[in-house]
Structures are given as C-alpha cells and as structure tokens.
Amino acid sequence: MIIQLDPAISEEAKAKITDTLGQLKFKGTEVKTQMGDYLVCIGKTNIDIRQLGFLPGIIDIHKVSDDYKLVSRKWKVNSTKIDLGDGVVIGDGSFSIMAGPCSIEGEENVRATIKHLKENGVNIMRGGVFKPRSSPYSFRGMGIDGLKMWYNIAREEGIKIVTEVMQVSQIEEMYPYVDVFQVGARNTQNFNLLDELGKVDKAVMIKRGISGTIEELLYSAEYVFSGGNEKLILCERGIRTYEKASRNTLDLNAVPILKDKTHLPVVVDPSHGIGIRDYVDSMSLAAVMAGADGVIFEIHPLPEKAASDGQQTLDFQQSAALIRKMKKTYTLREEFEMAV
Ligand code: PEP
Ligand code: MN
Asked: What is the pLDDT of residues 156-209, one digit of tens each?
C-alpha cells in the first residue's frame, strides 16, 4: 500500500497515521522524492483503505500488492517521462536513440561521433570514462578529465551525456557533467550506489544485472526511487545463459514484461546484448517491435581500433543505416498500435 502525503502535513497528523497503521498491523516507511512524499506500507493485503482514508494529511491511498511498489504500474498507471532538458525526453511515446563509443577515447573521437550523431538526428551520446573491465589490464577509461573534455564539446553541440558511474565516491565529481548516470550490469545490486543515486536530481539508467532477474532489476529501481529520485530508466542488456554463440542472451521478453509491470521507460542495449557487430541491427529492430522506449548502442569511427568492445561496435555507415531502419520500424510499430 502507498499513502500519498500532503507535502504540508503536520508532525501530529503523521504520527496519527503511523499509529493507525500500527493498529492495522502495517509498517510504513516515509519516502520523500523530488516529486512527492509517500508512506510505503507493508502489511496484510486484505485491508479496506477507507479505514485510513479519512485521516488528515493524506492525499490518496493506493493498494499495491507487488513487493516493489513505487516503480509498479499498479501505483502509477501513466508512463513516466524523463525530461533531460532542451526538448530531449525519454519515454514520452517517441523512440529514443542513444549511441556512442564503448569508451571515451579522446577529443577527435568525441568530435567525430557527435558530428555523426547530429547528422543523423540523435541527441544523446553514450560513452564510458570509468570502465568496468573483466581484466584489470584492459583499458579502464579516461576518468574525470575525459568526461570534462567530452562535456565541453557535447554542451557546445547540444548533445546529452549518458555515462557509467561505478562507485559512490564518483557521483559528486561527475555530477556537473552528466545528464544520465548509468548503473552498469556489474553494479545493478550495488545497493549503496543505488541509495546515493536516489539523492541525485539527475536521471539514472539502471542496466539489468548479468545474472539478474527482471524482478531484481525492479527492486534495484525501487532503491533509487525510494531514495528520492523518480527519474529512472531501465535497460535490458542481455543476461548470462548457457548459450555460447553470443556474448550474452538479449532477453527481449523483458521488454513487454517490464512495460507491463512498471511505469518507467525501458530501453534495450543490443550491443552488449548480443555482442556481435553483424547482429546488432536485427536485435535493435526486434527491440523496436518489442515495445522498447529506445535503444542504446555502440559506435566508433574505426571499430577494429576501438579501445574496448570493438567486436560489437558499428562504424558510422552501419550506424546511419541502423538509425534509418529503426525510425522506419518505429513508424510501422505506431501503425500497428493504431490499427488495434
Ligand atoms: C557499457 O555500457 O559500456 C557497459 C559496460 O555495459 P554493461 O554494464 O551492460 O556491461
Ligand atoms: Mn561496451
């Protein structure tokens, strides 16, 4: 059960609600987000909410039986839109395209990538400056100086930045230069990081854990949301299975399931999802038709020279063709949706 509180509620009224909840064998946790104040309550399910509804300081009460509550569509029916500013919105019914190198490698690469993105009508760029690498000897990113360099160029060109934050101590130094904090698949259940991102007033994109279930992804989102930040995006990026023919198994089942279970936008990462350049196209188009709100994929002027993940990275020509195909496919999806 979620109780939506009047932001101007008195301490006395709050105490009265807590007291009544106790009598009804419920435990309430107060959640203050940047958009609203709530009491998230755990207890028996067969309660008549009219037993509470008359109390002062309550705006509304919602019964939500899922264990994740604030991210559930049972609590909020309408899809959440993530406004990144300057007219860039994710989850507003349009299809968002985000692309960029696996790792930020230098100014020349950033400028070339931004030029390509702008020529193709894309205004959100991905790229890692703190890279989680399986081997400690692999390239681990340009760090904060790389982010500042990227930011200076991106701001000039009107491009938004999605980049991975790996640990709590990086949030503050990254904050001024980031539009969307990415939580990587290796950090989906780093609950300290999720708690801290709950306090930030910028968007957060949480990737599904390498061996994480859909439900666990929703719990991770609930951490950030209940920490105070409602600007959340979920990303399906493939999971580890027994299949060895691809890097990961892109679980497109997750798209309609998540779209049904949560009001948050859902994007797909076909690059990490399949891990093979030649098949990124197919999976991107499948993601469009599966109902995703967007796609995030890896590009590089010379993929075979990329500092990381070159094997799954598209060159600019392939990227331009994919963007065209995705836009066309999205028009088809809209037609199908209209026809129903
Ligand atoms: C990435 O996006 O560069 C990345 C490392 O992704 P993931 O966390 O999904 O492996
Ligand atoms: Mn990568």
From this structure: 999 999 999 999 999 999 999 999 999 999 999 999 999 999 999 999 999 999
Cα radius of gyration rounded to whole Å, the chain = 21
**Atom 6 of ligand 1: nearest residue by CA position:** 184
For the Cβ of 185 lying below 6 angstroms from any atom of ligand 1, the answer is: yes
Range from 47-61, 97-111, 205-219 carrying the lowest mean pLDDT: 47-61
> Per residue in 212-231, is it b (16+ CB within 10 Å) or e — as a string?
bebeebbbbbbbbbbbbbbb
Among the listed ranges 24-33, 42-51, 124-133, 291-300, which one has the minimum average pLDDT value?
Answer: 42-51
- Separation of CA 319 and ligand 1 centre (Å): 19
Q: 143-171 in b/e burial notation, b at 16+ Cβ within 10 A?
A: eeebbebbbeebeeeebbbbbbbbeeebb
- Answer whether 142's CB lies under 8 Å from 103's CB: yes
State which ligand 1 atom lies nearest to the alpha carbon of 186: 8
Beta bridge partners of 223: none
CA of 87 to the centre of ligand 1 (A): 26
- Is the pLDDT confidence value at 340 over 90? no
Res 47 pLDDT > 90: no
Q: Which residue is closest in CA terms to ligand 1's atom 3?
A: 102
Q: How far is the CA of 159 from the centre of ligand 2 (A)?
A: 20
Ligand 1 centroid from CA 237, angstroms: 8
Per the CB < 8 A criterion, the answer to whether 97 and 268 are in contact is no
Confidence of residue 44 (pLDDT cuts 50, 70, 90): confident
